[in-house]
Amino acid sequence: MKKTLLLTTCCLILTIVLSGCAGGRYLSASRLGPAVSINGQRYVSLCALAANYNLEYEWDAITRKAILTQDGSQARMMADSSTVLLEDTICAMEQEARFHQDSLVIPQSFARKRLVPFFRKDYGRKELPFSGAPGFTIRSVVIDPGHGGKDPGAIGKGGLKEKDVALDISKKLKRRLEGAGIDVLMTRESDRFLTLAQRRKIANTQKADLFISIHANAAYSRWVSGVEAFYIDESVDDNARCLKAAKDYELNLKEDYSGKDTEKILWHLKHREDRKSSIELAGLISHALSKALRQRNRGKKPARFYVLKANIPAVLVEVGFISNSREEKRLRDFSYKDKIARAISEGLKQYNNQFSGIRSARH
After folding, report:
1. CATH classification of 140-354, choosing from 3.30.70.120, 3.90.550.10, 3.40.630.40, 3.40.50.150?
2. What pTM did the predictor assign?
């Protein structure tokens, strides 16, 4: 009697767990998780998939976007879209992802053939000697010395030019990062002029992990001082940005889709994580500079700088006010500029160590 009651109870619990809503019924379970049939197509839940394969699962209800992460590797997808980003590889599912019973579900065949093998693949990474952080390691950085050539940037009262300060510090930073095993590309290595579009193009075509633009600040008042770092932000907040995205972008890719909005969709999928990474990096660099230089930390700030519109996390660092006579004098000093390069390097190290789960590499 007890065995019969126990068996009945187990069957009842199993029925409740596997029962679906109208229009969907659960099929046989595997390690992918229970499959649900919607309009004759088999789907699996990303929640169940994440639990079974030890993946981190993040769902953004505003953008209706899901992110799966494991050891720094990321897969991104959106409800009502068949487009999937496996790192930077664009994949198309045979059916759109759907929101079903509090979870995003995707075609079972895509999960089995592409998604699971993607996370099982061994992505070899060059370790960053100064960090030892698990998972994500910074492998390549684009350094952008601000201004140059016919564009001197800000000029101090003593004649010091921003373009020269930015180039000196950038070269010092490059040597430090290369010494740590990081590949570095400079947008300029001499006193030459580059347009903002040229700088942005370099950032977007080199498949680097981060973009750092080096500048010296200026203000009308000669008493203003301190360091700060900027990240891109073109909207009032995430809600406004997502509302605009929902109104402006076609997110449903059909098989016969023309592809005219693909670039916008990819930007939308990437932008949120890149912006989050940029904010974190800007805060860590400004803090490290303030601590090392004993200068006021003016913090991390949003801005609409064109040069920061990169396809990777990007920050613009203001290392001091050249309009302040005392800071101008310091910015002439070799050892002081070396301290700046060391502090920026320290900010990168802290970013790498603290946010090892965020993979911004584009390889």
Report:
1. 3.40.630.40
2. 0.57
